[in-house]
Write a structure and sequence with these properties.
The chain is an alpha+beta fold. Helices cover 37% and strands 42% of the residues. Strands 1-2-3-4 form a four-stranded antiparallel beta sheet. The longest helix is centred in the C-terminal third of the chain and has 26 residues. The chain is flat and about 65 Å long.
């Protein structure tokens, strides 16, 4: 097994643990951090033992689950909403302007 396969297998075995952090209990409530996690690995080479590989990942904190008095509430991270929302609004605006331009 090469290094890329080894890394991919170790990430795969962690599963949901990558997106949900360890619960923290304080003042009678439990807080569970939640993140969007993405990663990728790749590699290539030739028959002459030349090659390379690499990988990368991202983890964006999207919010927390707050559990208190038997009630669970998700509290979003406003910065993460902006990070995800701004490109979406921009892409939607560009698409809409092109549609309107094509209809003229």
């Amino acid at each position: 097994m090469n290094i890329v396969e080894s890394l991919a297998q170790s990430v795969k075995s962690r599963g949901v643990q990558l997106a949900f952090g360890e619960p923290v209990v304080a003042d009678g409530m439990t807080v569970v951090p939640v993140a969007f996690v993405g990663y990728g690995f790749g590699g290539g080479g030739s028959n002459e033992a030349m090659g390379g590989g690499g990988g990368g990942g991202v983890s964006i904190p999207v919010g927390i689950y707050r559990i208190s008095d038997g009630t669970v509430r998700f509290i979003p991270n406003p910065i993460a909403i902006l990070v995800a929302g701004v490109p979406l609004v921009l892409a939607s605006g560009i698409a809409l302007s092109r549609i309107l331009k094509a209809l003229r």
